[in-house]
Amino acid sequence: MQSPSQGMVSLLLASSEDPASMNILAELMSIRGWGATREFEHGQVTRHSCGNVEALLIDDLHIWADGIDASHSSLTGSIVDEVLVLSRHVSASETPALTLHAIGVPGEFPHGEKARSGGITGTAVPPSTRFGELFRNMCRIAKEEHLENEYDLTLEATHHGPVLVAPTLYLEIGSTLEQWEDVRAARVWSKTIALCLGMSERSAKTDWNGRGSVMIGLGGGHYAPRHKAVISDSDVWVGHILANYAIVFEEEQADKPFPQGPWAHSVRTAVESTRLAFPGGDIFAHLDRKSFKGWQRSALATLLSELGVPVLRGKQICPP
Fold it and tell me: What's the angle, vertex CA 282, arms to CA 172 and CA 293, rounded to 5?
């Protein structure tokens, strides 16, 4: 079948099994500039007239869509530069939220196995370089739409699948059906995506050009409040964020100079994956210091030094 494109594209991935995904997709499709939808083996493809955005609707849930970037390129001829997945968010607290995150399960082990929520244990997918700008613009637009008192505007640590090669982010609405079907929440994401991908008259699209400071967040809880504060108050590019549950140390042993446990593999994986996304970038780490014991911070500093990754404090990143 004749392909819709022969160039680099940002792929917007939606799933018919996900009500929030369909809600965001519907809002995106109300934006001017979309062409006719075409059927391919892997799903329905629609191309935007801006020339570098395509939407793909699949039947299966996206967290299991391993290799969908490669499949899309093979079937359509479009080279997938990044994947932005439109998704629902689920939390035990059922807190309404607009959130986004990179994907992978670097902290799960044993390594090399299918993870319970998609992905391969011990691995991470490169994050889209738009992480920071999408988050900051989402927060601004949500406040303009007066949703900041109804929704938690947040980000999350790296977690779940699918297994992809192209840099990827999940853009989510949480946490129950009421929010998944909220057109106002979907419109915030639609406006944010259009702005950051150059699909609207206003454009804040900023492509990575090989120069800039890129932050990796290490430590803290799943919603990474300390890292979030730094990203909110700066213009840094953003790579992987690992919560404490993904940086697992065994207990300190005096006769072993380097702590045991899978923590080092997890950190190395996050650094390597972020470097793949940001070639030429100045990668640095920001630690949620209070979430680590002193010997753990020391071990992290030693490993990061070996990897050529400096550790910066918040006041160094966001000077007063």
Answer: 70
Residue 201 neighbours by CB distance under 10 Å? 8
* CATH number of the domain residue 157 falls in: 3.40.630.50
Residue 62 φ/ψ, nearest 5 degrees: -65, -30
Give me the CATH number covering residue 230. 3.40.50.10700
Q: pTM of the full predicted structure?
A: 0.95
3-state class of 153 per DSSP? Answer: strand
Expressed as residue numbers, the domain containing 271 is 213-317
Handedness of CA 205, 138, 102, 268 (dihedral sign): positive
Helix, strand, coil percent content, the chain, rounded in steps of 5? 30, 25, 45
pLDDT digits (tens, 9 = 90+) for 267-285: 999 999 999 999 999 999 9
pLDDT tens digit sequence for 141-166? 999 999 999 999 999 999 999 999 99
Last residue of a domain, one of 165, 196, 227: 196
Same domain assignment for residues 152 and 269? no
